[in-house]
């Protein structure tokens, strides 16, 4: 029996299988962050292709906090209508719809001075950030709260908070980027305060399925390590899914990237917490995805580039694993012998 194609219920959300489309920036919006026809076709195609959960790309809670000026936005109530249509397209083709809400912090390439926990520059592509005051911190926490409210209004089944890849929440968490000496800096407990306050605020209005994406290591001795996250999750219990990625605080790392290179990080966190875990990172074949689940290294399989290459990966995988697919006959016939 395939675990990959077995359903799973997390909080109030039941996924038809364990295959998740990971959020990936598409750079197909406009300067105002609105949903375009591209998004309807792009995400709709992967829903038709049999993915259980599709998580939209980083969708910014602030116009100034975008990664690029072509990112989707959720900083205005005007964004809700387009996101609701996109959410309905995904759900209408049998997938659950998720959205990643984000703030880039110092890794923003839009015009202006970016915000960050400290005024530590990333590299020459970015401006030197402004160290956030308490007023700035309160403002961004409110922006995340409003982003979640809008995402819920649009009808998303899962809301993911982007705490990975060197963006704002990750900047607060990492000692490489966080040089503060107040209550938001220094110890891991203090560096995690910004994230915890965001999550507590969100849970005051949203009881649905909440995911947190993390970078489980900075790949530097002086940076975050997976054991730090194990310690963190002892006190963070108000999330439903942990999506385990890595890196991003330092952009010029020369990593040895290979099939499943991040899976051990997911496995380590899964073995230390009761929260369902998603694994990601060069997971290309259904056999490898199935083995990760059978060996209890993760609960969900997140695919990125593989779903860019193969929108119907899930259909093909079901036949390769000998699973009777529920996909409509017009697609099923392509895999019948």
The arrangement of helices and strands along the chain is EEEHEEHEEEHEHHHEHEHEHEHHH
**Structural class, from secondary structure content?**
alpha/beta
Q: Please name the CATH topology.
A: TIM Barrel
Radius of gyration: 19 Å
Number of domains: 1
Strand content: 15-25%
- Please give the count of helices: 12
Residue ranges: pLDDT <50 for 5 or more in a row? none
CATH architecture: Alpha-Beta Barrel
CATH-defined superfamily: Aldolase class I
Backbone shape? globular
For the record, what CATH class applies?
Alpha Beta
Distance between the termini: 21 Å
Q: Count the strands? A: 13
Largest sheet features: 8 strands, parallel, barrel
Strand order of the largest sheet: 3-4-6-9-10-11-12-13
Helicity, in percent? Answer: 25-40%
Average pLDDT: 96
Describe this entry's structure for a reader.
By secondary structure, this protein is an alpha/beta fold. The chain has a single domain (8-332), classed as Aldolase class I (TIM Barrel, Alpha-Beta Barrel). The protein is built from twelve helices and 13 strands. The protein has helices at residues 37-48, 80-92, 134-154, 168-173, 188-191, 193-203, 226-232, 263-270, 286-294, 305-309, 313-320, 329-332; strands at residues 8-10, 13-15, 19-21, 53-60, 72-73, 96-102, 115-116, 130-131, 158-163, 209-215, 241-245, 277-280, 300-303. The strands form three sheets. It has an eight-stranded parallel barrel, surrounded by five helices. A hairpin with a 2-residue loop joins β1 and β2. α3 (134-154) runs parallel beside α6 (193-203). The longest helix is centred in the middle third of the chain and has 21 residues, at 134-154. The relative contact order is 0.14. The model has no long low-confidence stretch (mean pLDDT 96).
């Amino acid at each position: 029996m395939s675990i990959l194609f077995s359903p799973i219920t997390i909080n109030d959300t039941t996924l038809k299988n364990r295959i998740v489309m990971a959020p990936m920036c598409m750079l197909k919006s406009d300067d105002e962050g609105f949903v375009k026809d591209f998004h309807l076709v792009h995400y709709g195609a992967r829903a038709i292709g049999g993915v259980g959960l599709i998580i939209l790309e980083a969708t910014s809670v602030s116009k100034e906090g975008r990664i690029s000026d072509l990112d989707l936005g959720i900083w205005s109530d005007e964004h809700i209508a387009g996101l609701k249509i996109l959410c309905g397209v995904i759900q209408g083709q049998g997938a659950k719809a998720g959205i990643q809400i984000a703030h880039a912090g110092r890794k923003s390439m839009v015009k202006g001075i970016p915000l960050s926990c400290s005024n530590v520059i990333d590299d020459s592509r970015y401006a030197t950030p402004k160290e956030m005051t308490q007023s700035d911190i309160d403002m961004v926490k409110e922006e995340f709260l409003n982003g979640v409210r809008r995402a819920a209004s649009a009808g998303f089944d899962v809301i993911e908070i982007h705490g990975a890849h060197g963006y704002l929440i990750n900047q607060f968490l990492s000692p490489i980027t966080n040089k503060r000496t107040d209550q938001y800096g220094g110890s891991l407990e203090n560096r995690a305060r910004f994230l915890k306050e965001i999550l507590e605020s969100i849970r005051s209005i949203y009881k649905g399925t909440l995911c947190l994406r993390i970078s489980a290591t900075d790949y530097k001795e002086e940076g975050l390590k997976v054991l730090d996250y194990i310690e963190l999750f002892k006190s963070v219990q108000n999330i439903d899914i942990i999506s385990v990625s890595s890196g991003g605080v330092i952009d010029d790392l020369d990593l040895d990237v290979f099939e499943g290179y991040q899976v051990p990080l997911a496995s380590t966190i899964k073995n230390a917490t009761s929260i369902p875990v998603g694994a990601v990172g060069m997971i290309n074949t259904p056999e490898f995805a199935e083995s990760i689940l059978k060996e209890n290294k993760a609960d969900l399989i997140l695919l990125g580039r593989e779903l860019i290459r193969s929108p119907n990966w899930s259909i093909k995988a079901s036949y390769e694993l000998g699973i009777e697919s529920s996909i409509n006959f017009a697609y099923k016939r392509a895999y019948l012998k």
